[in-house]
Design goal:
heterodimer; A: alpha+beta; four-stranded antiparallel beta sheet; 8 strands; 19% helix; B: alpha+beta; nine-stranded antiparallel beta sheet; 6 helices; binds iron/sulfur cluster
């Protein structure tokens, strides 16, 4: 099952407002957050920037990197969001099962463990606040 | 053949006790019959893990220099208000307490991300907690203000004390209205869009000893990962509800008040819990051993999810307005299939308590007993049975300005 410590690879699409175009954002992502980075697309004018990056790194570093980007005022496309489960906090209660519109959660009939199938998730966010132990997390 | 608790304890001490969980015992009795199994088996272990609101903890935080009298003052732990109505440095925290500035349900449904239950979880996990307090100052306790980090290990006493836990059976919640409602039974979708339940069923302590023959005041239990005791019958104890032929209550009936040393507990079995639109609470893990003293006690432990029925209650009207009507009765066996028929309608079901963790607790308790680390106690008094006449009352409201 997906652990929080896992390495993640993601594509994110960034838009830079004009005043941030000249900031060394990419440099900080590599240096301060240990993220491997691939620039897939970059289109920077003196007015605005648009970049598609592929980032690879530890989940925790990744989250911190994204936080850094948002705090710097960059706009990250919401299409890149995803919902993961913190396995440490999940108690296998099942409260999420009937809340999810895309049947991402199923109960094993024998063990009664609650399986989460990330690829079924449509990132509606319904489970985030309905999970009593707050195990479901929204990430970019 | 009848056994005594002392005989069972001798077997536990010598590592010869035969122990099964309340889930395993069903198959054992099916195979060997009641008589043979009663002779062979010494203990059946039960377990439950779910939100239990009437939980709390009290602490003696140690005296300050100079002294402060918190009693009559104000105390908060990580900004969650604690109760300061005791002597100098005794403080009590309830699982449902919320920070003053929590928006609660101002924007409905409120999120309730942090409260008393979470503080208890963090203390048990060994985290430092911020204590802030003000007091009025006396000649013997002159100090008026205190701000400090505290840690569970530095306190004199830290005791979990829960006045109502381990409900013997519970309602199944549905919503018959045409909008979503947010309850302590979880998010309930409109027009009976789902049904939620909250019981470990065949593993649940009081459902395996429905007439309170072995579980009583003084029974030693698994509590929050450590050990505890049943201190009293729980609040709202209500033994006289309808029961099945074998005595299993079909409504919430018995409850337990439990106590134990917080310092030996674990945050895996004591977990801060948020109910959207309702509030914060704590999920508690409890396991109770049942000594198999005779066949009758054993027979009760073989109860299965198909034998336990619960009332389906409408939480949009009947529950809040205290109307007696129930939508139907349904077994945990059916609830666990994930879909049930209520009034001819197919309704998906969800559990709020964790069955895997209830099973885990029953297994841990079984292992502790088998390994000679957990001996049984004889209760010093019984819980109020059906014959006690104990009944759960509603408040008789009397207008303050009227006659007494
Ligand atoms: S509601 Fe939360 S804790 Fe319960 S099974 Fe779902 S993800 Fe796990
Ligand atoms: S975010 Fe929505 S779709 Fe994804 S698992 Fe949660 S409830 Fe289901």
């Amino acid at each position: 099952m997906a652990k929080n410590k896992m390495t993640a690879t993601k594509k994110i699409s960034l838009r830079f407002p004009r005043h941030l175009v000249s900031r060394p954002v990419v440099y900080h992502l590599i240096k301060d957050f240990n993220l491997e980075l691939n620039i897939l697309k970059a289109n920077i004018t003196s007015e605005e920037g648009h970049m598609v990056l592929e980032l690879k790194g530890e989940r925790a570093d990744f989250d911190k990197g994204i936080e850094y980007l948002t705090q710097s005022g960059l706009i990250i496309d919401t299409l890149c969001r995803e919902v993961t489960r913190n396995e440490e906090r999940c108690t296998d209660c099942g409260a999420c099962v009937t809340v999810c519109p895309s049947s991402s959660f199923t109960v094993d009939p024998v063990t009664r463990e609650v399986r989460f199938e990330e690829d079924k998730c449509v990132v509606c966010g319904m489970c985030i606040l309905s999970c009593p132990s707050r195990s479901m997390e929204l990430h970019f | 053949m009848a056994k005594t608790i002392e005989e069972i304890n001798q077997k536990i001490r010598s590592g010869r006790a035969v122990v099964f969980t309340a889930e395993e015992i069903i198959g054992v009795v099916k195979e060997h019959g009641l008589k043979k199994t009663a002779a062979l088996v010494d203990v059946v272990t039960t377990g439950t893990f779910g939100p239990m609101c009437s939980s709390g903890a009290y602490f003696n935080i140690g005296h300050t220099k100079p002294r402060i009298k918190l009693g009559g003052g104000k105390v908060s732990l990580n900004d969650v208000p604690a109760y300061a109505g005791f002597a100098a440095v005794d403080v009590m925290l309830g699982a449902n307490a919320l920070p003053e500035d929590d928006p609660r349900n101002r924007f409905h449904p409120g999120e309730f991300n942090y409260g008393g239950g979470h503080v208890i979880e963090e203390l048990v996990a060994g985290k430092d907690i911020k204590l802030t307090a003000t007091a009025y100052g006396t000649d013997c306790y002159p100090r008026k203000k205190l701000e400090t980090w505290i840690n569970l290990r530095d306190m004199n006493e830290a005791v979990l004390f829960n006045m109502r836990n381990a409900y013997q059976n519970y309602n199944v919640a549905v919503n018959l209205s045409d909008k979503t409602i947010y309850t302590y039974m979880g998010t309930l979708k409109a027009n009976m869009g789902n049904a939620t339940y909250c019981s470990a069923g065949q593993l649940s302590p009081l459902l395996n000893d429905p007439m309170y023959k072995t579980i009583g005041i003084g029974t030693k239990i698994f509590l929050g990962g450590g050990e505890g005791f049943i201190a009293w019958h729980g609040t709202q104890f209500n033994p006289s509800v309808p029961r099945t032929e074998s005595g299993v209550p079909k409504r919430g009936a018995g409850t337990l008040a439990v106590i134990g040393d917080l310092k030996h507990m674990s945050s895996r079995y004591l977990m801060g819990t948020s109910m959207l639109g309702y509030g914060v609470t704590v999920s508690v893990g409890i396991g109770v051993p049942i000594p198999i003293l005779d066949e009758d006690i054993l027979r009760h432990t073989t109860v299965t999810d198909d034998d336990i029925f619960a009332a389906v209650v409408d939480y949009s009207d009947a529950y809040p307005n205290v109307k007696p009507e129930v939508v139907g009765e349904i077994s945990y066996g059916e609830l666990k299939t994930g879909r049930v028929k209520i009034n001819g309608r197919e309704v998906p079901t969800a559990s709020l308590s964790s069955y895997p963790r209830a099973r885990e607790i029953a297994i841990i308790l079984k292992d502790r007993i088998t390994n000679g680390k957990f001996e049984l106690t004889s209760p010093v008094a019984t819980l109020p049975g059906i014959e006690s006449g104990v009944k759960f009352k509603l408040l008789n409201e009397r207008p303050i300005n009227g006659e007494k």
